[in-house]
Design a protein that fits this description.
By secondary structure, the protein is α+β, with helices and mostly antiparallel strands. The chain is about 50% helix and about 15% strand.
Amino acid sequence: MGAPGTQLQMASVQAGPEVRQWRPATRFAFRFCFVYFGMYCLLTQISTALVPLPSFDLPDPSTLWPMRSVVLWTASHIFHITRPVIYADTGSGDRTYDWVLLFCELVIAILATIAWSIVDRRRKNYLALYKWFRLVIRISLAGQMLAYGFVKAVPLQMPFPSLVRLVEPYGNLSPMGVLWASIGASPAYEIFAGCAEMLGGLLLIVPRTATLGALVCLADMTQVFMLNMTYDVPVKLLSFHLILLSLFLLAPDLQRLANMLFLNRPVAPSNEYPLFKTPRAVRIALAAQVIFGIWLVGMNAFGSWKNWYDYGGGSPRSALYGIWNVEQLTIDGQVRSPLLTDYGRWRRVIFDIPTRMAFQRMDDSTARYGASINTTDQTLKLTKDDDKNWHATFTFQRPAPNRLVLDGEMDGHTVQMQAQLFDRKNFLLVSRGFHWIQEYPFNR
């Protein structure tokens, strides 16, 4: 048996802090956040990230009925958009469809908040609803942080520059291409960034560390948002909303943080309310959150490991892997000299992944093709993504490991080329590596 004072203190902790009446502005803000953030999490990839099944792709919730009809009607009748509004998955989160969807969510949230405030104006607080909604936001934000963290910790999101990227002029890269190539060229930094995002997600899983997790997520997502804005990466809307979700979780502790960091005042205990009244139910809820967090970690880890071998750094390479400099090209029996003004003269043949290849022209532009290589028959078949009827067929020979001869037909012309393998390690970006000691800066 403990002292009476200790028992009273434990009872007070279990019961939670004293419930006070919320100010009208606080109640209004909560109603808006509940509707708006609830809709945003439900209708975007935030909800699908909570079911990270590597072999099963869930549909985009915002493209299902009735939301798709609402968005397309709004785009046509409110914004008078006459062109087709793309809602298929393009890899972009800043499509016209996404912006119109955001407008619809904002309007619905405002109208719902006004109606809710009129109907329920006598309520003193939304403590019970807030406790569960906070849990939903914590888990939703954690799911996103773990998903994005794992694809960086296992360097998948920004892979090391491909062979085509290595020979492409820097000035031809888009701002997003520059960002992807620069981070991909430093896997250690990408892994560090991914671990920072994973840390934020893991801390959010446990209620006791959720505030610290929200702070870590806020720092991570602020950096990501600024990169998206300054390098034109089409994930601006999502990264901005992840910042807002972090701030929502931090809102109850902003005064405590200000007292500690800026005002040099004593910091009161957190106003965190338990989900249930009995200690046993609270422990069960905590165990359920931890188990779900472990499941999220396991599924994301498995998905990243699988993708590393499917299309990441551990995936198979082309049978003709390498950058091949075309030393001699003959078209219809005529030798084509390597003139910079000859657009139809290939400069390099590049094989990277097994199903793709590219020709680089004399002006450094590239033409990419689908490729099917048969090492038994020593044949190479090319296809175009935008023309299913187009194809070209070559036979190849390897007189030496660093020599390649291609003979075949392409666009109605007989083509023969002889190429020399370029050693990838000759690129300074590949061979330079890391150095603890540098007498002078090596900035080239």
